[in-house]
Amino acid sequence: MSRQPPLIGVIDDERNIQATLAAILERQGYKHVAAYNGAQGRQMIAQHRPNIVLLDLGLPDSKDLEVLRKIRAEHPQLPVIVVTAHDSLTNAIESIKMGAFHFISKPYVPEELLSIVSKAIEQLNLRVETKELREETVRLKKKMLQSESYLEPVFKNQKMIELVELSEQVGPSEANVLLVGESGVGKEVFANLLHSKSPRATGPLVKLNCAAFPPNIIEGELFGYKKGAFTGALQDFPGILSAASGGTLFLDEIAEMPIDLQTRFLRVLQEREFRPLGSTHTLKADFRLVAASNQRPDDAIRNGRLREDLFYRLNTFTFYIPPLRDRPDDIAALCEQFLGRYGSRLSKTNLMIQPEAYKMLHAYSWPGNVRELQNVIERAVVLSRNGKITPDNLPPEVLGSGEPPHAMAGRNGQNRNKNSAPTENISSLNLAERERQALIAALEQSHGNKKKAAQILGIHRPTLYTKLRKYGLLS
Questions:
Q1: Of 100, 211, 255, 379, which shows the fewest CB atoms inside 10 Å?
Q2: How much is the pTM?
Q3: Quick check: 116 and 80 in contact, CB under 8 A?
């Protein structure tokens, strides 16, 4: 929903009722717009786009449910609350059949009407949130397709090489696989590898992040639903299980799935069938399961986040993927891969990471793992000049883990005299200037688009605005 107060459209031919409704709605903080017959009402909806409509029956220019029928045809997503003195059972039933949100007869208690309006607004909010979640999921999927999900395994670490070899052995089977590791370690890389090595490789690889949806939405996303199965189910939705038919289902953050839903999903794995919400028909579940968790299974079970019986069903093979800080021998190969990717996008070829920068990359602990390394290299490529990645191109948090080059130079007796400022002050000034230059470069790269600039820098938009204000760059 918009930050603006909801706009309620009122279609009623009696001016005293219009005045009463206006007073009731305005006291509640709603805006309203009035129409006095069916034709005006439809014009009002087209012009003002109200969030909800209160509709009287028996308007002077229409018969019975004619206006409702036309509004539903023209604006199927618009909640319409029928408010009428024509309160026959037939009218009520037919109104609901046509898709009216509710039917209330005159005279009514204002609190009852406001309660129905509030429920309609809640439904609208839920619908908007669901749409935004889906859009965000699509955005994240696109980003992931450009990031770790389609990375070629370039690992040099022996443990990672062994996991790749195990993937090639396990891939051709139908065995369930559980991938365990911190966020950003590359679990999706292995999910893609397992799928590509399986007999289902020509089928879909469908991914669902269990942490991306609220508990009251994820069940419908997973199982699908029929129109009218619950408030907000305005059309049939096939669901993830159906979409994965003939392919691989990748459930990320499986321990974030609600416990009661885990019970139902376990039954799907056992019986290989499921029923969409609101449906009387059972469908076959034809998918190979790969699940992932950033929590160790024993911890998740002990904390009540993961059912033990579901874990045993998932645990045919469990891959424990080490964090990047425990496999620094992978950093160079990953950096080269990211340099090639982002360099080609920006027409910056033959980029080289200077030794001082490599030292800092190796010294950093990488709490965000491979995904963080990827963002750092993308940022460095954007800021690079003359084909070189230098410490000046790295973010402050990475610089803080290693020794800045000016400090090393100072220790070697270069650029130093007895009147020079303390190293700590020079460092903070240089870091501030680097951060300022990084902001300027990101804004140039994004052509002033703040959202895109924040994504380039790997920070949230509010943080970007704070930093822009700090350096006087906010226009």
A1: 211
A2: 0.57
A3: no
